[in-house]
Hints:
two-stranded antiparallel sheet, globular, mainly alpha, 5 helices, about 5% strand
Amino acid sequence: MTRARLGKYLMSMVLAGQAIGGFVLDWRENHLLNPEWSGHARFHGGLLLFMLAGVSATGLWLLWRQSKEPEVAMQAAALISLSFWTPLLYVAAVVPGATPWAGPAGSVPHLAGYTFYPNIAAAVLLQAVTLIAWRLSRPQWL
């Protein structure tokens, strides 16, 4: 398997995983169906899930369609993924009252004495896989 093909498969896994995983992980009582969320917050959460699924499907279509410029499709797919995952690293700092923790208040997990947000760890991992996939798709001399 070529490096470019491996990158294409990795990017496809990220795009499909984020679209499906969003519904699996967020369509639950601790998140989108949380009774403490306002109706409008649920509305925006639902919009985000469906938009993520739609843009992820668009990225998959770009990757797998016949094209004379497959590198453009990979760049678009990488930007789709990064545009979703990167804000997880800073949105709590710019939106008053926002937190990356979806569980009960006061139950934020800790790892080695530090606050650990599983969704932030997932965001960093998916950003890394996205960048690896994009890099694999580039000519070796870059």
